[in-house]
Amino acid sequence: MKKRILIFMAIVFSTSLFISISAQDIALPAPNKTGGKPLMQALNERQSTRSFTKDNLTQQQLSDLLWAGWGFNRSDQKKRTAPSSMNVQEIDVYVALPTGLYLYFAESNMLKQINNKDIRKLCGTQDFVAEAALNLVYVADLGKLKKKEGDPIKESDLLSSYANTGFIAQNIYLYCASENLGCVIRGSVPKDKLAPEMGLRPNQVIILSQTVGVPKK
User: Fold this and answer.
1) How many C-beta neighbours within 10 Å does residue 91 have?
2) Nearest to 208 by CA among 111, 109, 91, 98
3) For the segment 52-82, what is each residue's pLDDT rounded down to a tens digit?
4) How far apart are the C-alpha atoms of 95 and 45, rounded to whole Å?
5) Which domain holds residue 46?
6) Residue 75: its pLDDT value, please?
7) For residue 204, which of 103, 130, 96 has the smallest C-alpha distance?
8) Collapsing DSSP states into helix, strand and coil, what is residue 11?
9) What does the alpha-carbon distance between residue 139 and residue 209 come to, in Å, rounded to a whole number?
């Protein structure tokens, strides 16, 4: 009897530990796929911002932002809001928030926590990257392009990934213009410092980073 009680307590403890860890993931609200400014107005107001407040985005804004950038707009076909060369969809979108680093899963519309570190300041070389609400880090998973760990990676291997990232980044720009938020795409990323903090494999390559937040008036 005593042994059974101990086993039961062990199960309860391990279950509660799992729940507490899983609870760090963020289940986003359903994205709002209607409304916003007309396309031509958003294009007219699209701009880069490099001065941000420390205000956070709401979870609804975060959901809408990520769906606009790289969400599924044809879920039955697993097709996205941005094009991808040969539909490989090798770009992963990581989100650096004050509460940690997350990976965006479009199919379940959630952010899976990678770690609980605030690594925003490592996402760029300018001071504002550490103060803005979040930084998006675009990572090419070359494993989806048949690159194994240890295989040499040439610049020519990344050409499509740069183009695909550009499509996503422009979607983010247009969403921000539509919602009076600010953003800027950046190539100035200390990849040698950032990649280890993100726990990336050798065949995962940081392409660009994009800072998003509330612009200072």
Assistant:
1) 22
2) 91
3) 999 999 999 999 999 999 999 998 889 999 9
4) 24
5) 27-213
6) 87
7) 103
8) helix
9) 9
9 belongs to a structural domain? no
13 found inside a domain: no
185: Cα separation from own chain's centroid? 13
CA 206 to CA 204: how far, in whole Å? 7
Indicate the number of domains in the chain: 1
Domain CATH code at residue 66: 3.40.109.10
Please return the burial class of 145, using the count of CB atoms within 10 Å of its CB with bins 0-12, 13-18 and 19+.
middle
Q: What is the rounded CA–CA span in Å between residue 164 and residue 72?
A: 15
Contact assessment for residue 112 and residue 119, using Cβ atoms and an 8 Å cutoff: no
Residue 10 in any domain: the answer is no
- pLDDT higher than threshold 60 for residue 114: yes
Residue 14 lies in a domain: no
Q: In the predicted model, what is the mean pLDDT of residues 192-207?
A: 97
Q: How many CB atoms lie within 10 A of CB 38?
A: 9
pLDDT tens readout for residues 119-145: 999 999 999 999 999 999 999 999 999
